[in-house]
TrEMBL record, chain A:
This is TFIID subunit TAF5 NTD2 domain-containing protein. InterPro entries: TFIID_NTD2 (IPR007582), TFIID_NTD2_sf (IPR037264), WD40/YVTN_repeat-like_dom_sf (IPR015943), WD40_repeat_CS (IPR019775), WD40_repeat_dom_sf (IPR036322), WD40_rpt (IPR001680). GO terms for cellular component: transcription factor TFIID complex. GO terms for molecular function: RNA polymerase II general transcription initiation factor activity. The lineage of its organism: Eukaryota, Metazoa, Spiralia, Gnathifera, Rotifera. It is found in: Nucleus.
TrEMBL record, chain B:
This is TAF6 C-terminal HEAT repeat domain-containing protein. Keywords: Nucleus, Transcription, Transcription regulation. GO terms for molecular function: RNA polymerase II general transcription initiation factor activity; transcription coactivator activity. Its main location: nucleus. The lineage of its organism: Eukaryota, Metazoa, Spiralia, Gnathifera, Rotifera. It comes from Rotaria socialis. It comes from the Eukaryota.
Length: 619, 517
């Protein structure tokens, strides 16, 4: 009977036993049989039905609970882990059934991107660890931020399943439930009492929260300490100084060159709205991958799929000078003055050639506009000098395509991120990075990096739709995880005062974060498609401008949002006395004619420059 | 992104000769699906890094290349061909350069998307479409009102309530603001302290070729239009009637192309409507035609939307279409002496055609307005039943219906017999009038009558091709009748109107015949 079972299970084993019997290896055969039996018993001990019972039991409890909004966070990790367990046990039909039975519309709408990736491995367990997302999932723990009351409710429920028989759970089912809670979920008590929401939402209905998942090693050590979010870098610690900054010249915070009359510049705010100047690129035969403006809005850099970079001057009087070639210099050397202006070769555009793959990221050095960084598909980052028009350094560390590069405000530190899941921090004079995040190794691709204005912190957007904030100067470096987006993040920007972070994602939703308190201040959903660029107005940060590839720019009253938020923090509002004229949150929406916008930036005259591409898809 | 559920079936056909076990095929299938799906995800990563709206073949290629899979050679050649075209920015500074080389170059243009938070009305910006925005916002407002404020939420947090209130009021305010006041006007309505020092800053851009500059000057707020707009209005209307030919042409050009006319539109339409009404009483057809040509120019202006002001112009147009021009009163001496008299009659026919043109244009464009078509239809029908209808009105009516197949169905399916008898009666009346004078005219009218019958028949059976032929026939007959009438100087009583077809009308008919479905 055993034999028939085995032959049913797998013909290989039957053949092996035949072979052992034929060669009269009795001891080996007995040994093999024992091992095989124990293994098959183990497999059969997993009762597929348990999964269905456990999940429906818990979901019933949660959906009937009065703390549904918070507790619904548990359902998502539970669902995914049970599903992945089923796949691991090779019962693919069952897991399909599990998916069909329990995936409901709220899940689908909240985690649409996630589920589409989950379907990637719906057929075989071998792919579980090849797919970056599920790999992250299995190696992380979930952070549930619950209030004390709802946590108690959950605790009571779990206790009652243990002791009472009212839920009719078998012991194996209880152990399954507990093991998932122990292995993958960590509960963080956020506040004493349950409040339905503390988010200012604009134009959206109330949505349940989503859990954070963080790597297991981090989950055990993470602490959300107080951050320094001021505008200027901390100079108190001597050690830090020695570490990096002392070697370099003092940062230049004056955004404006001295020759500009300060009185001429309009101070922007809700009562003085900005002007927007739109550059549109037309008739591109090449595929344009990325576009960026320099900090003074004089230079435009365009990165092409064909691995060239084009720099062009936007100011007609500002030609792109270059140094003379050595031979020329020799002829004129009897005059001892080095005159850079009397150049032979004055043009409005320059082509930089050096990469071997398509350009995916560009960044100008913010202070002097003398350097340009480019990240490419060929896994290298190159630094270009903008008066010799040549490549100075090729930085090599990443082993997959570079997705983003960005300069810190001091202009000598920069960060890069890549598909390989690493964030590297560099100084321009060293060819190897001085920091690599995350410490526990790579997970999925990291899409964006952005420096805090005081250059102490670095934000990175990860493939699990979270934003991680890293302290550059500190050992225990992960200081915040912002979680709430349900689509891939497409844009990040810190406010100029350093207290807030704005992030936009691929379904057009924008979230404004309070960095210190790790809270969502506002959800702004107006755009239909990905947010390509976010900009605060300089110095005050009272206006928020958002450009999207759905060819529109929206203008938000950030001052009003933060004011409402402050009032709520201090609980000082009693009467809606604030003047009705000034409390509009959305100030205006500017539509363009089919120009999908790429990049926006404020110039030193406080004019917003926007760059868009016309009709790329129709061609 | 469309998710790949299974591999296509015919994919396996090439492998069927190699005998693989079903288990093996299943495993292969799973493995391949996984690879293809991960490739698609990687492709999306690249496309998103480049902020593309949709995936490109080139992104897929990049995903393949990172796995060291290289494309086949045909594709390579194609790409290389593309790469050879020169990369260069056609800079906005060098005008000469722009003229010399047009193709194969990257072009960079520049314009103002917003000036001090307001979007200027220029051709580079999309035209402000009020009706769409409003309907959308109405919907959103409704959903906001119902969904956002469950009572329990309010009870739990007063802050939340306040926030939603503010959000709602701001939305509503925004909506009200947008509906009634045009951005340009709004710009002038709000008092703005413009710093004199700001001006040089704008001029900095003024030398670039495509930068428009709308300087807003503080105005008194008594009138909704700014002083410039009032002056503009005055200049435009005056130069149409009193100006030289060049001024007139300029004004017409402005009407047909200026994007900033929208705030002036209600006044312009009022001007046209009143002008036409006055001139109907004064029997000055040339003035009416001139007003209509202004309207024609306005309709050709694509930055203008009429939908809010149709009520001011439609009655006038209908009057033009249907009213009786008592031309006999108008200078009988002149009309007998001068050849212009016949031109005057032909002008009536042109007038009818033009107005019917306009009406059908508006009907086409604003068919979304409820009962618009039905109301026009009923007005025309009611007039037809009137006893004082003249031949030209019947003609206009037929014209009107002929262009609107929809209307034809409505009219002729329902009371075809009634229409027929009515029309017979009309034609017979006309025949009666001319009966004593000319026999051949009578014969021609009989012909006309017959042809109309056939037309009605064809229209009733929804058969357009014969109807078209018959229409041609009528054109021929009417010209004959005109010749006949003009040959008879001895007519004592003026016929009410000549049946005239000048070349313009003839062309017009040819056009109809071409465009008939």
């Amino acid at each position: 009977m055993e034999n028939t079972n085995e032959s049913q299970d797998s013909p290989d084993i039957a053949e092996l036993i035949c072979f052992l019997q034929k060669n009269n290896l009795k001891k080996t055969e007995v040994c093999f049989r024992r091992e095989y039996d124990s293994r098959s018993n183990q497999i059969s001990s997993v009762n597929v039905n348990d999964y269905f019972v456990v999940y429906s039991c818990l979901s019933n409890f949660i959906l009937n609970s009065s703390y549904q909004l918070e507790l619904i966070q548990c359902l998502f990790p539970l669902f995914v882990h049970l599903y992945l367990d089923l796949i691991e046990h090779n019962s693919t039909d069952e897991c399909q059934r599990f998916y069909n039975q329990f995936v409901d519309s709220t899940f689908q709408s909240l985690h649409r991107e996630f589920f589409s990736q989950l379907k990637l491995i719906s057929h075989s367990s071998k792919h579980l660890y090849q797919c970056p997302l599920t790999n992250v999932f299995r190696t992380s723990r979930f952070f549930l931020r619950l209030s004390m009351t709802s946590c108690n409710e959950l605790q009571n429920f779990i206790d009652s399943t243990k002791s009472l028989t009212k839920f009719d759970l078998t012991s194996s089912q209880i152990s399954l439930l507990l093991s998932i809670f122990q292995q993958y979920i960590k509960i963080d008590i956020d506040q004493q009492f349950f409040t339905p929401s503390n988010i200012v939402r604009f134009q959206t209905v109330e949505q349940p929260m989503t859990p954070i998942f963080v790597h297991t090693t981090v989950a055990n050590t993470i602490q959300f300490t107080r951050l320094y979010t001021g505008m200027f870098p901390l100079q108190s610690s001597a050690e830090q100084k020695r570490d990096l900054s002392s070697l370099y010249p003092q940062m230049n915070y004056n955004r404006l060159p001295n020759n500009i009359d300060l009185n001429n510049i309009p101070r922007l705010g809700p009562h003085k709205l900005p002007s927007i100047c739109l550059y549109s690129l037309k008739h591109s035969k090449q595929t344009i991958n990325c576009v960026t403006l320099s900090n003074d809005c004089r230079l435009l850099a365009i990165g092409f799929q064909s691995s060239e970079i084009l720099i062009c001057s936007l100011n007609p009087n500002h030609k792109l000078y270059s140094m003379k070639p050595a031979t020329e210099l020799h002829h004129s050397s009897n005059i001892n003055i080095l005159d850079t202006k009397s150049d032979l070769d004055k043009t409005n555009e320059r082509l930089l050639i050096g990469h071997t793959g398509s350009i995916l990221a560009l960044a100008f050095e913010p202070n002097k506009q003398l350097y340009l960084l480019s990240g490419s598909q060929d896994c290298t980052i190159r630094l270009w000098h903008l008066s010799t028009w040549s490549c100075l350094v090729a930085y090599k560390m990443h082993f997959q395509c570079i997705l983003d590069v960005t300069f810190a405000s001091n202009g000598h530190t920069f960060a890069s991120c890549s598909i390989d899941g690493l964030v590297c921090l560099w100084t321009i004079d060293k060819i190897s990075p001085f920091r690599i995040y995350p410490e526990y190794g790579h997970s999925g691709p990291i899409n964006l990096v952005e420096f805090h204005p005081n250059a102490n912190y670095l934000a990175s957007a990860h493939c699990d739709h979270t934003i991680h904030l890293w302290n550059i100067y500190h050992e225990n470096s992960l200081v915040r995880i912002f979680n709430g987006h349900r689509h891939q993040i497409s844009s990040l920007r810190f406010s100029p005062n350093g207290h807030f972070l704005a992030s936009g994602c691929w379904n057009g939703e924008i979230i404004l974060w309070d960095i210190q308190n790790n809270l969502q201040i506002a959800h702004l959903s107006l755009h239909k498609q990905a947010i390509s660029s976010i900009e605060f107005n300089p110095l005050t940060g009272t206006l928020l401008l958002v450009a999207s590839i759905d060819s529109s720019i929206s203008l938000w009253n950030c001052f009003m949002i933060t004011k409402l938020y402050d009032e709520k923090l201090t609980d000082s509002i009693n009467s809606p006395s604030s003047s009705s004229s000034s409390n509009k949150i959305l100030l205006n929406l500017f539509k363009t004619k089919n120009t999908s916008l790429f990049h926006i930036r404020f110039s030193k005259e406080n004019i917003l420059y926007a760059i868009g591409l016309i009709d790329r898809t129709n061609k | 992104m469309v998710w790949l559920e299974t591999l296509p079936d015919d994919w396996w056909k090439s492998y069927q000769s190699i005998s693989l076990s079903t288990h093996c095929i299943h495993e292969l299938n799973i493995e391949l699906l996984f690879i293809v799906r991960s490739l698609l995800l990687e492709t999306r990563t690249y496309a998103r890094a480049c902020k593309r709206i949709c995936l490109c073949a080139i992104d897929f290629q990049a995903a393949l290349e990172t796995r060291n899979i290289y494309r086949n050679k045909n594709f390579t050649n194609y790409v290389q061909q593309l790469e050879k075209t020169s990369i260069s920015v056609l800079s906005l500074i060098d005008q000469v350069d722009q003229l010399s080389s047009k193709t194969n170059r990257l072009e960079l243009t520049i314009h103002w998307l917003a000036i001090d938070g307001q979007q200027p009305i220029i051709s580079d910006n999309p035209p402000a479409n009020f009706s769409e925005d409003n309907s959308e916002e109405k919907k959103q407002k409704k959903s906001n009102g119902t969904k956002i404020l469950p009572n329990e939420l309010i009870n739990r947090s007063s802050t939340l309530e306040k926030l939603f209130q503010i959000a709602n009021t701001s939305r509503r305010k925004n909506y009200v603001y947008q509906e009634h006041i045009h951005p340009l006007t709004k710009n002038n309505l709000t008092m703005k302290p413009t710093h004199p020092r700001n001006l040089p800053l704008r001029r900095f851009h003024a030398n670039n070729n495509k930068v428009p500059c709308i300087e807003s000057i503080q105005t008194c707020l008594a009138h909704e239009l700014s002083i410039e707009q009032q002056l503009y209005f005055k200049l435009l209307t005056e130069s149409c009637f009193n100006g030289t030919d060049k001024q007139c042409a300029d004004a017409f050009h402005c009407f047909s192309s200026d994007a900033a006319l929208q705030p002036l539109l209600p006044r312009l339409l009022l001007f046209i409507a009143l002008g036409i009404q006055t001139n109907i009483h004064l029997h000055d057809l040339s003035f009416i035609l001139r007003f209509l040509s202004i309207l024609k120019m306005l309709t050709s202006n694509k930055f203008i939307s009429f939908d809010k002001y149709l009520h001011s112009i439609m009655p006038t147009l209908l009057t033009c279409l249907l009213c009786i021009f008592d031309l006999a009163k108008n200078d009988p001496i002149l009309s007998t002496i001068d050849h212009n008299s016949s031109n005057n009659y032909s002008a009536v026919w042109t007038l009818r055609e033009q107005t019917s043109d306009f009406i059908s244009y508006f009907e086409d464009k604003y068919s979304n307005i409820s009962y618009f078509t039905e109301r026009i239809c009923s007005i025309i029908k009611r007039n037809l039943n009137n006893t004082t209808t003249t031949f030209s009105i019947v003609y206009a009516y037929i014209l009107q219906n002929y262009k609107q197949t929809k209307l034809i169905e409505v009219d002729f399916d329902l009371d075809y017999n009634e229409q027929k008898t009515l029309f017979n009666q009309k034609i017979n009346e006309l025949l009666g009038k001319y009966n004593g004078y000319i026999y051949d005219i009578q014969a021609q009218f009989a012909n006309i009558n017959k042809t109309f019958h056939t037309i009605f028949h064809h229209l009733a059976t929804n058969d357009n091709t014969p109807a078209r032929l018959e229409m041609k026939c009528i054109v021929a007959i009417i010209t004959e009748v005109n010749d006949a009438i003009s040959n008879h100087d001895s007519i004592g009583r003026q016929p009410e109107e000549y049946l005239t077809f000048d070349t313009h009308t003839q062309n017009y008919y040819d056009q109809i015949l071409l465009t008939l479905p």
